[in-house]
Amino acid sequence: MTATEIKKKLIGRINKTDDKDLLEGIYSMIKDESKKETLILSEPQLTAIRRAEKQISSGNFLTDAEVRKRTAQWLGK
Predict the structure, then answer these.
(1) Which residues of 40-55 are buried (b: 16+ CB within 10 A; e: fewer)?
(2) Helix spans in 1-77 (H)
(3) Terminal-residue alpha carbon distance, the chain
(4) Cα 59 to chain center, whole Å?
(5) How far apart (Å, rounded) are the C-alpha atoms in residues 10 and 16?
(6) Residue boundaries of the structural domains of the chain
(7) d(CA 37, CA 39)
(8) In this predicted model, which residue has the larger pLDDT, 37 or 26?
(9) 27-75, pLDDT tens digit by residue?
(10) Torsion of Cα atoms, 40 then 42 then 43 then 49, to 10°
C-alpha cells in the first residue's frame, strides 16, 4: 500500500468515527511527529530487547491472530 493510499484510508476512518479515545490516540501519535525523542534504555531493558530479538529471529513468537485466538479461549469466548 502506498503512502497516499494509507492517508486516504486514515482520513476516511477518521471522518467516519466519533470515538473520542481513538481520535485522541491518533492525535497524540501525530501531534509531536517532528519532535523525535531519543530514548535512553537501561542495561536490563537492552538485555530484554536483545533476548526478544533472538526469539523472533528463531521463530519463537505468536502472531496477532494466534494471540487473539488464545485470549478468546482463555476468556471462554
Answers:
(1) eeeeeeeeeeeeeeee
(2) 3-16, 20-30, 43-57, 64-74
(3) 33
(4) 20
(5) 10
(6) 1-36, 43-74
(7) 6
(8) 26
(9) 888 887 666 778 899 999 999 999 999 999 999 999 999 999 999 999 9
(10) -70
HSE-CB at 23 with a 13 A cutoff on CA atoms is: 10
Number of residues written out for the chain = 77
How many C-beta neighbours within 10 Å does residue 29 have?
9
pTM: 0.43
Q: How far apart are CA 7 and CA 2, in angstroms?
A: 9
| pLDDT confidence tier of residue 13, bands split at 50, 70 and 90 | very high
Backbone angles phi, psi at 67, to 5 degrees: -65, -45
Structure-block grid coordinates of residue 63: 502472531
